[in-house]
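Q: A reviewer asked whether we had any structural model of the full assembly, not just the individual parts. We don't, so I'm hoping you can provide one. Inputs are below.
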Amino acid sequence: DADVTQTPRNRITKTGKRIMLECSQTKGHDRMYWYRQDPGLGLQLIYYSFDVKDINKGEISDGYSVSRQAQAKFSLSLESAIPNQTALYFCATSDSGEPTGGTGELFFGEGSRLTVL
Amino acid sequence: AQSVTQLDSHVSVSEGTPVLLRCNYSSSYSPSLFWYVQHPNKGLQLLLKYTSAATLVKGINGFEAEFKKSETSFHLTKPSAHMSDAAEYFCVVTPFSGYSTLTFGKGTMLLVSP
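A: Here is a predicted structure for the entire assembly that you could use as a starting point for your response.
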């Protein structure tokens, strides 16, 4: 089984619909992230969470919300989807980096491709 | 503040020739630097990382990168390209302290021809 699992892997929806993308991890990491990937733009951070009670906006949080239901679960919601939210979405996890003896390396899910018509 | 610039959006090489993917960074703090690879329709996988130890870092699949503080660069190299190296590569920076998020470059697509 994958360490970071995203569902659904593909979704086509219509403008104005509410969409939830779910992410679960078995790495035991405290930190979880949602990224959006568009061709030529790299990965842009939408939201991140450094622990269950910590939620932070990233570079492009407008139009998105998140919920950290447990250490292992972090979901991304689009309350009213619009066509320019068509993209590939990645969930990732990491430990807390060098200060805690970790690496800070990100572990990614396989991605969720969302198309908004 | 931190940022990453990948100097080439596309790099084309022939199989068996050297690969050079260029990355420059800026960071207000001592950085940790990473290279990730993304094959088509896949998630991202760590190639290698620099975290203040040896400046020449060896990664998987024969890749390596050298941290040059004076040039604020972290270029990725491989002596001999293989067809399976065709993918998109991302340079990533984060403060060594760990108390921040990672910043991605826009990516370099590596094309390998027979």
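A: Points you may want to mention in the reply: DSSP finds no helices and eleven strands in chain A. Residues 66 and 76 of chain A are 5 Å apart (CA to CA).
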